[in-house]
UniProtKB/TrEMBL annotation:
<protein>
    <submittedName>
        <fullName>DUF3616 domain-containing protein</fullName>
    </submittedName>
</protein>
<dbReference type="Pfam" id="PF12275">
    <property type="entry name" value="DUF3616"/>
</dbReference>
<dbReference type="InterPro" id="IPR022060">
    <property type="entry name" value="DUF3616"/>
</dbReference>
<feature type="domain" description="DUF3616">
    <location>
        <begin position="51"/>
        <end position="372"/>
    </location>
</feature>
Length: 387
């Protein structure tokens, strides 16, 4: 009987490694993000700088979220490229009917920019509460926050000079189709369209009602091109492979987003990705290259890497190690700096593309409570297809 071949980190050896190029390189720079105090913000109860969970970038504008809120934050990179401020706070509950209201936690873990929209995705996960006392029965408390079932998009308004805002609707003057906010229809029930759909899946279904960080369903990566939406799962990891859920979205007559039926009659497709047994913490398109940030499915310390799929194909169901290229190993610090979000800064006249990396449980060196600051790392990033 054939035995399963163990996945080895060496299987992902790239041309850089074989040539002796160090993938565990240090960041070339840091970018300080400055936020307004949470007391000055609407529907924000905790400091944003403590818990940046996702990133997206266009021009000088960096969008980010804190997974404890139901808002999106935008900061602008200054002329020196060392800091980003002029913080603006966008309350999603003012644009969408959220079942838990505008202040209910959304656990936003995915942001993506495509075709003039900012796409936003909640984790869709259940969570196990931490025990209050020493009673082991407290571990039985598993909760559902209904705002976590959000997937939607908001139009981007380009104000020039790299400044981009979120708006409810745009009606172009040149006759091109207008754009407006839209989301997948949701209610307070944990049977959201996406959870309900995946509950019936032979591979994902058994894990849908398990809590996040326990190999339960947990969406943490989002990458969008046109109407194609890729959801990267931190969990479950199935057979040592991370999973991507692919959907082709349409806008219904009632103004909701809905995945269309594919050739097999399903409204989604699965892609299995060999990340050395880890799950997906974030994803980002760089031209035609799909970047994937790996990370532990459970709540433990682990080495994290950024992988690249040069030509992601909807027709390919399984991506073994040889189909990926490991382009970066992130520095590991015990107890802090768990990489959680990535975004690509576009190339400029004097600099190539760069990768921003934001961290959960940030190290004390990254944060300044008095200045409401957190520093994200900046890594050099070759263009798609470059070695």
């Amino acid at each position: 009987m054939a035995k399963n071949r163990p996945t080895r980190l060496a299987d992902h050896a790239s041309a850089e490694e074989k040539a002796g190029f160090a993938l565990d390189r240090k960041p070339v720079d840091k970018l300080d993000l400055f936020f307004a105090h949470h007391d000055e913000l609407t529907n924000v109860g905790d400091p944003i700088w403590q818990d940046v969970s996702s990133l997206a970038a266009v021009g000088r504008s960096i969008f980010c979220t804190c997974d404890e809120t139901s808002t999106v934050e935008r900061v602008l990179i200054d002329e020196h490229g060392k800091a980003a401020g002029e913080h603006r706070n966008f309350v999603l509950g003012q644009s969408f009917q959220l079942p838990d209201g505008p202040s209910g936690e959304m656990d936003i873990e995915g942001l993506a920019i495509s075709d003039g929209y900012l796409w936003i995705c909640g984790s869709h996960s259940l969570k196990r509460d931490d025990p209050d006392d020493d009673d082991i029965d407290d571990f039985e408390d598993v909760d559902w926050d209904s705002n976590r079932g959000f997937l939607g998009r908001v139009p981007l308004l380009d104000r020039g000079d790299g400044v981009v805002d979120l708006v409810d609707a745009i009606e172009p003057l040149d006759g091109t189709p207008g754009r407006t906010v839209a989301m997948v229809e949701m209610t307070a029930s944990k049977k959201t369209p996406i959870r309900k759909m995946l509950k019936k899946d032979r591979l994902i279904g058994p894990f849908v009602d398990l809590p996040c960080k326990e190999n339960g369903l947990d969406i943490e990566g989002l990458a969008v091109k046109g109407d194609t939406v890729l959801l990267g799962l931190r969990g479950p990891v199935v057979g040592g492979f991370a999973m991507i859920v692919r959907m082709e979205m349409k806008l219904t007559d009632k103004g909701f987003l809905k995945p269309v039926k594919l050739k097999d009659g399903k409204r989604y497709a699965l892609h299995a990705i060999d990340l050395n047994g880890q799950g997906i913490r974030d994803m980002n398109w760089q031209e035609d290259r799909l970047l994937i940030l790996s990370g532990a499915t459970t709540d433990l310390e682990a080495m994290q890497s950024v992988f690249a799929i040069e030509n992601f194909s909807a027709d390919r169901q399984v991506y073994h190690s040889g189909a990926l290229r490991r382009i970066l190993d992130l520095p590991a610090i015990r107890g802090s700096d768990h990489a959680e979000g990535i975004a690509v800064l576009e190339a400029t006249e004097d600099r190539g593309p760069r990768l921003l990396v934001a961290y959960d449980s940030p190290h004390d060196d990254r944060v300044d409570a008095e200045k409401q600051r957190i520093a994200v790392d900046v890594f050099e990033l070759a263009g798609s297809g470059e070695k």
